[in-house]
Every structure is written in C-alpha cells, then in structure tokens.
Amino acid sequence: MKIISLGLGVQSTALYYMSSMGELPRVDYAIFADLGKEKKKTIQYLKYLQTWQSKNNGIPIIVIRKKNLYKDLLISENSTGQRFSSIPAFTKNEDETTGMLRRQCTKEYKIDQVDTAIRELLNMKVILKTKVEIWKGISLEEIDRLSVPQAGWKIHVYPFCNYSVSNKETKKIEGILKTRTDIIKWYIEHDLPIPPKSSCVFCPYQSDAAWYNMKVNEPSDFRAAVRVDKAIRDSTKKGITSQAFLHDSCKPLDEIVFNEGIPDLWHGECSGECHS
Asked: What's the CATH superfamily of 2-91+104-198?
C-alpha cells in the first residue's frame, strides 16, 4: 500500500497532484489529519482539492478529525482526566531566559492519527505483515529532514529527494528531484493554485510576518490563537512550571506589535508533517 501523508502545504499537495496525474506512481490514498483549527485558507484549499479530486479521478482523500488539539488546549486548568499534550510553546524562566516546551502535538495528533487510519484500512491483524509506503513532501533543499520510521511496517518515501527510508536501510529510488522553488514553478506551469503555508493557527513556529498577516487578514484565526495563548499561560496542573507563550518574546499574543518586515519563514522547524 502507498499513502501520501497530506499536510496541505506546497510540497505534499504537489505529490498528490503529480501522483493523481501520472507524473509519479499512483498511490492508494492521501490522508490529512485535521487538528481542529487549521488556518482558514488551508481548509478552503482542502475543499478545492476535494472538488478537483472528484472531477479528475484524483487519489481518494481521507480526512481524520478524531482528535481536536484546539479543544484539548482550551480545556480548563481545573479539568481532570485529560492528559496534556504540549505544543512547542515558549517559556519564560525564572532567570529571564527563554525556553521551549517539548513538542508532542505532531506525533500524537498528526503521525499517530495517520498510522491509525492506515491500520483501519488494512485491518490491524495484518499490519505487521504488510509494508506501507508513506510518501512525504520533503523537497531537495530540506533533505536533512528525512526521518527513520521506528515501526517495521513503515517505509518513508521522499520522491522529491529520491530516497526511501525504513528502519533497516536507506536507499536511492527513482523519484522526481525538486526543490520548493521547482515545485512552485510546477504549479504555475499546470495552472494550479499554490497552497498556503499550512499549520494550526496557534502553531508557535511562525514569524512576525505570519502573525501580523493573520491578525490583519484572518482575524477569526488570530482570535482563536489568542484563546490558546491565554489558555496555556499557567499550566502548573499539567506539569509546566513556567509561564507559556505562543510568541518567542514571551509576551501575550494580543499585546504584541509585530514586525511585519521580518521574512515570512518558519521559526524553527516542525517535523514536516504540518507545513509541507
């Protein structure tokens, strides 16, 4: 079985189109895990892609909405029985230094949800006997982001880097070498809309330009981010001793004057499951 891990960013969506159109081998499914508060433009693009799929015999798209990180983060501090899954928020330590919380959200709300969907497709009884290719939209300039799957049934395939990776070996494959710039040119040549950068509205891996753009052009998304920023501030009952913030200045999100001149690049890097 072949699966595209669909993040709805530029690279993984290009994999979807190319595989659907025959420029790459056809996979069986594309799976997108919605964490509950993707950016408005990302959800709009998902609807466009689903329409394109129905009109062009595209690869079936599976959307998972079984877990909602947004709602989980907004659970009251007085709530019990809900294990806290941290996002990579910034912390202000007692000595005034800035730290960052461990990132658990990508694995638990993206990777694990895709794995569960694959098991359901195959039947859990046979999953250990089946090899599954999981295609990831990592482009050539990001080749250092290739990851080794721990499970023996998983093979990570990177068509834009010409590599496949299992827990036993890394090998060259026949793919279609492309950088992110190459991929954007491909969209233009094929008259396809370029996807917006994808992530949850409250993802801390965003530049000032991205926060500013959200605040000005997508105010409902920004209000949702502010809600999360306030909800995570004091999480001592969830094992976090320092105050937590979505912005690296360690100031409340709704009080920041953003420097929109900073290039719109991700601060740090998620694992490639969300943004690609």
From this structure: HUPs (3.40.50.620)
* Cα atoms in the 13 Å half-sphere on the side-chain side of 182: 11
Cα separation, 77 vs 86, whole angstroms: 14
Q: Return the residue matching tokens 């330009």.
A: 209
Is the pLDDT reported for residue 54 higher than 70? yes
Question: Distance (Å, rounded) from C-alpha 235 to C-alpha 76?
Answer: 10
Q: Which two tokens stand for residue 18?
A: 């190319």
Asked if 247 and 256 touch (Cβ cutoff 8 Å), the reply is: yes
Domains of the chain, residue spans: 2-91+104-198
CA distance 84 to 50: 33
Extract the tokens encoding 102: 């461990």
How far CA 36 is from CA of 47, 193, 257, in Å, comes to: 15, 24, 27
Q: Which one is predicted more confidently, 80 or 193?
A: 193
Q: Is the pLDDT of residue 83 over 70?
A: no
Give yes or no for residue 4 having a pLDDT over 50.
yes
Contact 238, 87 (CB under 8 A): no
What's the pTM? 0.84
pLDDT at 162 over 90: yes
Query: If you compute the radius of gyration of the chain from its CA atoms, what whole number of angstroms results?
Result: 19
